[in-house]
Amino acid sequence: MEEISLAIAAVTSHRLVVVPRFAPDAAYAAAVRAVHPDVDVVPTQAFRDPLARWEPSDHLLVIAPECYPVEGLPLRDLVGGAASDGSMLRNLLAFETSPAGTKEYVHAGEGGRVRRIQRYFEPVTWPFPAGVVASLVPVACLLTIPDLPWASLAALRTAMAARGVPSQDSPYHGRVVHLDDEAGALALAESRVEAMAAASQALGAARGEDAGSLVIGRGARVHPSARLLGRIALGEGAEVEAGALIIGPSLVGARARVERGAVVAQCLVTPDAVVPRDAAMRHRVVTTGAVTPAGTPGHDDRAEPASGEPPVARPVLQRRHVHSSAPAASAVDVRPSAYLRGRAVVEPVLAALALLFLLPVFAVVMPLIALTSPGPVFYGDLREGRGGRVFRCWKFRSMRTDANDMQRQLAAVQQMDGPQFKMAHDPRVTRVGRVLRRLNVDELPQLWNIVRGEMSFVGPRPSPFRENQICVPWRHARLSVRPGLTGLWQVCRHDRANGDFHQWIQYDLLYVRHVSLAVDLRVLVATFRTLGGRWPVPVERMLGTRTASPAAPAALPDTIASPAVNVAEFHTHDVAEVLPPSTEPSSVGGGSLRRMRVADARRRAV
Q: What does pTM read for this prediction?
């Protein structure tokens, strides 16, 4: 409540109104006013009475607990400019996330045969809202529509749309939790404890002190025999008695008490609540005023005193209402290293010097392109960089301006076995373009992308979204580093005649796993020595290993079991369940590719 009141005070000075979904008593109203004195507590049934006192030109800012942002309420953009438009509902809309960063829908027809498989990726193709964070509602609209559903902002949005009230949705891509269930409240408390502990450690480091992982409020008391493990926050006046054990992340509110011998593991203990003696709590929200089956007031109704072995309270709900925007784990565990951070600083300087050195080449190439074919000198296509961020990748234009339209007509002569289009004697390439491509001069403008920090000298080939969505583990791995002007695949590929998408996957994953200064220098030298990959270089030489070819992936069955496709309606699941991440590069690449081929064969059979 305190956090919400501070967020609202930043955008408006008007009085707050709390509208609980139950009939509030005097004790509830007093508890709310203890946090924020200037507030009205009104039951839902009586809410239209204060509503009638407001002017039709006013706006009502509504915040509900079913979709609460972990990083705090971003209300400025929602409220800004509201006075100029009193006829439209404005919503801050949050979106779901998948642990794998992707979802896959399987559409089956009659007889359970698969008709279509559609994969969605965050945030490029992601039409899955999680809920409404906040709504700005014109009072004029509310006065004309009786019996609005205040229980949910999503229901309010739907009801007003059904009555013809236009709405404007603004996306919110942060992490949200559902505070109406235990899992959501625990997730928010965990986030707050982590933030407080990190801030305390940063402050301690600035003072030359070791702040540890504990945050202890004024007047809090901890018995010397009590044990506190992990990141824990104790509110003002909280008390931890003898022999108690608290395991973090846990948040113990102001004036709360953990009694003798109690165990609290990853819990939220609300202000003034009591964890009884010898009770064991895990993944629970302990509140005040509840009554246990034993009739002991002051703690959650699922906590029981110990008899022999202390009972451990199990979580009632899994954390399915916690929508996180954290990046999904990839098949290759990649963490920003000191080398990658240093490379990001040095490369833009080197690229700028290279551009100055190559200005004579630009001065020759640019007129040749302009004089021999109509269209711009440079061609910029949208590609995905590190973290999936989209940028415009620049090249010297080597094709006709209608090349994309021609590609659809030439699809039948595709010579690659993956998403990339390639064919011998491509009619879309201009005469000057053939020379530029043969010498790899068309790639030189990508030095500007390196100056801008969008690319590196060495890395996976920059690809558009339509190519990166084919293999999920490959996508996660290759987008964990910046794309490169050259790379391991360009200098080591040796199966061009048969279409080498499988090698593209394998070499990208090998590079991401072994990225280092030595590997980058070897790839750069090999790029010059082979004139941009005219002939292959052994990958073992590039990586400085005896062998870089891991064991072959486990064989897949020739046929798919019928339960996998015997579905009669839409089903959704995470792609991670279909393509489990592997720690072996060829297992990810080859295995995923074989899965795609099986899926293609299945679709053809249908």
A: 0.56
